[in-house]
Amino acid sequence: MKDTRTARTSRPRKAAYRVATTWQAHRALRIVVFVGVAVAIKLLTWPSVGVSPDTGLDGSWQIGLHLAADQGLQFGRDIGFTYGPLGFLVFPLLVTGPTYALAFVATFAMEALLVLAIIVTARRGLGNGTIAIPIAYAASALLFTFPSEVGGLLALVVALMFIQQPVQTPRAALVVSALLGVATALLLLIKLDGGMIAIAVLGLTAWMQGRARALAAWAIAGVIAASGLWLITGNSPLAVPRWMAWSAQLVSGYSGATMLETPGRAWEYAVFLALAVVLIAMSTYAWRTRPITQRVALSAVLVVGIWATFKHGFVRHDTHAPFALLTIAVLPAVVAWRSTALRVSAVAMVVVGFAFAFQSTEQPTAHLLDPRGRVSNAYDQALLITDSNSRAAQVTADRAYLRSRLGVTAAMVRTIGRSGVHITPYEVAAAWAYNLKWKPLPQFQSYSTWTTALDRVNGDALRGADAPRFVLRADVARTDGQSPIWQSPDENLALLCRYRPVMTGGRWQLLERGTNRCGVPVLVGIAAARAGRATGVPRAGANRIVFARMHWSPDLGERVLSVLFKPSHAPEIRLTGAWGRARFRLPAALLDAPLVLRAPAPPGLPARAAKLLRTDRMTLLYPPQAGVDFYAMSLRP
Questions:
Q1: H-type helices in 542-583, by residue range?
Q2: Exposure pattern of 324-360 as b/e (b: 16+ CB <10 Å)?
Q3: Rounded Cα gap, residues 248 and 253, in angstroms
Q4: How far is Cα 552 from Cα 154, in angstroms, rounded to an integer?
Q5: 124 in the Ramachandran plot: left (φ > 0), alpha (ψ -120 to 50) or beta?
Q6: Which of 193, 324, 411, 606 is 20 to 30 A from 537, alpha carbon to alpha carbon?
Q7: What is the pLDDT of residue 14?
Q8: 554 exposed, middle or buried (CB, 10 Å; 0-12, 13-18, 19+)?
Q9: Using CA atoms, how far apart are residues 95 and 103, in angstroms rounded to an integer?
Q10: 447-467 residue pLDDT tens
Q11: Burial readout 124-152 (b: 16 or more C-beta within 10 A, e: otherwise)
């Protein structure tokens, strides 16, 4: 006889199973749809720019990242930069086939993930998926201008998403935290500042998923992933401490060295700060009913994200500002609002933020949002990964174009041959264009030696036994009003002492390593420099180099301002000689580097640099006062 009680009990179970199965299928389908929409948006907003390497300051360091990966140069020994050994991943340039393929895939994946995260969080926060899609589209259209900053914004959006809605089971918490740890490792090895944001916000996110166990899973997965990627990219474990030390110097010197204010952009401060204040106030109100721990975590992530974005966008207040406005436009869309009034206000903030972000880019909005030709451009760039003939033809054409712009003489290229060559102050593009054996100094662009410690690294490398045989020096326009011989002062002093010019052609000079021609520095004068008052430079005789080391310590307020944002002023000095006078800025952290003022000019040295080696007087313009020690050293002909 059939047990009717069992039959009655099984029917609800079967019904519940069918409901659960249907729900899971619906959820899986929704995820597939979201992923498909994110990929479609990324394709429709794929950059209209090409993948050809370029000359100039930015183009050259991007090429340098690819060359460093291709040649197996070690970070912490051969290379030190704000980008890490995976930095090339966010610049899909056709420098080498393997690095281009990895960069293309990584860039597409990261940006598609960010679009997906914006869609998911905006749908939850604004309560409407239809609104989320155009927000994600507009954000993606702007992203290609700032590929290196995608990682930091992705970490911020993911942190807000998971802290607002933590995972429900302990196992899921451990899995999510471990994935966040891997993401942290990737972002850290791509770019230092994005990695530090990830450590702060994703570490806090992991802790919120499951407290100590989840945080441990995040840390362990992050350490394992970072260690594995460090070794896979050919870096030695022994180089980690030095890489960290150099990175700390880069972080500490960034604000004082790169600070810039472009005229006509002051309105961007007002827009960003107004939107940030309103966002913080609205989110604080919206989160008031949440548990205190969750409120603190969400507020901390939001404040860290806004501060990091503000510093990135406005320390160097030029083309960096649009990304800051883009970020402050996206954030209202990823906060979980609880009322219609707050959602309407958030949408209004998004619209206003995007409007000003598009205005700030100084590119036509219609061009940025126009999807025509984007999919075919993505296809053509993807085809270069698999089609070796197309790739070879593109590389040949790109090298020919760069050679026409760079103009390094054939005689110089023949003389260098397969010997190692460092290129200063920054045109690394020449190494790729002429297929030279690039042997860079650790700070391979003189502009990035932001502190005396980093400058000394380059100087010691030139004085060391493993120094490059040749140095190819370009006569280029000065950067940010800095002196051409005070960018990496110790490097330039080592060039005077250790290298001799062998060939000059066009805007290039080729130097070859020789014996040390300099004697021991001797103190020849001490002065107390005051702003606006000229200080005479000692005349130490023929065949001698005179350089100055300055001593100045900013007050506490200025140091705090430098950490939180940027200094109020950069040191500035006016140099005067028979040739006239000129004024130059330099990072405060380089004041005590060997600032060469007088020296016999090597044959073929560019005129702009040569005249500065005949300085008679120096006048401090800022800071108000500083101590100056003058040194002299002999220089054998």
A1: 556-564
A2: bbbbbbbbbbbbbbeeeebbebbbebbebbbebbbeb
A3: 9
A4: 40
A5: alpha
A6: 606
A7: 59
A8: middle
A9: 11
A10: 889 999 999 999 999 999 999
A11: bbbeebebbbebbbbbbbbbbbbbbbbbb
Helix or strand holding residue 442 (H, E): none
Cα 403 to Cα 409: distance, rounded to the nearest angstrom: 9
pLDDT at 92: 94
Q: Which residues of 397-433 are buried (b: 16+ CB within 10 A; e: fewer)?
A: ebbeebbeebebeeebbeebeeebbbbbbbbbbbbbb
Contact 529, 609 (CB under 8 A): no
3-state secondary structure of 530: strand
* Residue 272 to residues 255, 267, 334, 512, 565, Cα–Cα distance (Å): 19, 9, 17, 50, 14
Q: Alpha-carbon distance 18 to 14, whole Å?
A: 6
| Rounded Cα gap, residues 299 and 310, in angstroms | 16
Residue 161's CB is within 10 A of a number of other CB atoms, namely 18
Residue 193 Cα distances to 299, 306, 382, 616, angstroms: 20, 14, 29, 42
Query: Rounded to 5 degrees, what are φ and ψ at 516?
Result: -70, 125
Tokens at residue 393, please? 């033809």
Peptide bond into 291 cis (omega under 30): no
Measured over the CA atoms of residue 169, residue 172, residue 177 and residue 178, the dihedral's sign is positive
Residues 590 and 455: beta-carbon distance below 8 Å: yes
3-state helix, strand, coil in the chain (%, to 5): 60, 15, 25
Task: Give dist(CA 419, CA 437) in Å, integer.
Answer: 6
What is the phi/psi pair of residue 584, to 5°?
-135, 145
Q: Measure Cα distances from 131 to 137, 143, 255 in Å.
A: 10, 19, 38
d(CA 50, CA 44): 15
Q: What is the pLDDT of residue 541?
A: 81
Q: What is the pLDDT of residues 567-588, one digit of tens each?
A: 999 999 999 998 899 999 999 9
pLDDT of residue 143: 83
Residues 254, 258, 264, 269, Cα dihedral to 10°: 0
Q: Classify residue 482 by its DSSP letter.
A: B
Instruction: Name the amino acid, one letter, at 480.
Output: D
Report the distance separating Cα 51 and Cα 63, nearest Å. Answer: 11
> In order of start, what are the domains of the chain with their CATH numbers?
45-369 (no CATH), 405-513 (no CATH), 522-634 (2.60.120)
Helices and strands: H and E segment counts in the chain: 21, 15
d(CA 198, CA 186): 10
SS3 of residue 537 by DSSP: coil
Task: Judge contact between 299 and 287, C-beta under 8 A.
Answer: yes
- Judge whether 600 and 613 are in contact, CB under 8 Å: yes
Strands 625-634 vs 522-530: parallel, antiparallel or unpaired: antiparallel
153 Cβ contact partners less than 8 Å away, ≥ 6 residues apart: 114, 327, 330
Query: Closest Cα partner for 165 from 107, 218, 117?
Result: 117
29, 225, 240, 300 from 219: Cα distances, Å? 33, 10, 17, 19
Give the pTM.
Answer: 0.91
Of 145, 23, 21, 94, the closest CA to residue 383 belongs to 94
Q: Mark the ranges of the chain whose per-residue pLDDT is less than 70.
A: 1-27
Task: Report the C-alpha gap between 501 and 635 in whole angstroms.
Answer: 15
Q: What is the dihedral of CA 133, 136, 141, 147, to 10 degrees?
A: -150
